[in-house]
Amino acid sequence: MRRTGGAGTGPVTPWLFCFHHAGAGISAFARWQQVLGDAAEVVPVLLPGRGPRAKENRITDVPVLMNELRELITPLLDRPYLLYGHSLGGLVAHALTRTLEDDGLLPPVRLVIGAVPPPHLRNPLLRGAGLPDAELLDLLVEFEAAPPEAAGRDSSLWRRHVIPALRDDLRLGEALCQVNADAAVGTPLLALAGREDRLAPLTEMAEWADYSVSRFRLQTLAGGHYFVRERVVPELLREVALELRETVQQEYRAESSARQEGGTRLLPTPDLSER
To answer: Considering the entire predicted model, what is its pTM?
Structure first.
């Protein structure tokens, strides 16, 4: 396990993999490293078909997506990590956690999901994947997932630059819900709910409790569906990462001391598979 500090005694620095909402890229995570500092290394995950990956085909098939994400994650399993997913990204993070656990790979030590109801409830926007552009834009405005101008004077801009990727992302979200409805994971789960979020109200976010056989916590935050853009989210994740790092370090010291008292100088890597 990679550690900061010398002689294998420094604190563990976990990864923080971040998954974006539908129709978007990774700009919401651009300044997170500044907030988290050395508490975690932020790794924004950009899905294909947007930004620097605009020429790649967008993914709407769950097994294809899981294969790609598994290839990304597997080489980095030299230390503990957290997953944060916002809206569609929350469904992606949940599915990836389930996939890694099923494959016997090191799962995340925390799964953090924001602004999306659990798969069995279905985000109300998912039904809009097959709607004409105008109706889909009206639906986005109705649920405050887009400004009123998106269905008005800026509609042509949204049709060209947002709707194509958004439509495929909604198809992906529907597929994720179908595959993972009622699929619980063994990883501790933290759900974040915006107090004014009409797409993922508090009562629905609370039902994520049925999706972890380990610990579950629900926390409310100020704001609507896009509270991910506020500093409060990376600040909260910094607290989670620091708590995790301290816990792992204590376990490391305890196990190291036990081994030395038993007559060996080998310092074991903590097993986080059941944390």
So the answer is: 0.87
Query: What pLDDT digit, counting tens, does each position of 77-106 carry?
Result: 988 999 999 999 999 999 999 999 999 999
Q: Which strand ranges, in their side-by-side order, compose the sheet holding 41-45?
A: 41-45, 15-19, 81-86, 110-114, 189-194, 216-221
Q: Which residues have a Cβ under 8 Å from the Cβ of 159 and sit 6 or more positions away?
A: 133, 137
Q: 5 pLDDT exceeds 70?
A: no
Q: Is residue 25 a contact partner of residue 88, using CB atoms and an 8 Å limit?
A: no
Report which residue type is found at 1.
M
**From the centroid of its chain, how far is CA 60?**
18
Mean pLDDT of the chain: 87
Structure tokens belonging to residue 71: 């290839």
The string of DSSP codes covering 92-143 is HHHHHHHHHHHTTPPPPSEEEEES---TTT--GGGGGGGS-HHHHHHHHHHT
**Using only C-alpha atoms, what is the Rg of the chain?**
20
As a whole number of angstroms, the distance between CA 61 and CA 73 comes to 19
Work out the number of other CB atoms within 10 angstroms of the CB of residue 127.
Answer: 13
> Which H/E stretch holds residue 240?
helix 232-261
SS (H, E, C) 132-151: CHHHHHHHHHHCCCCCHHHH
**pLDDT exceeding 90 applies to what percent of the chain?**
73
CA distance 169 to 89: 10
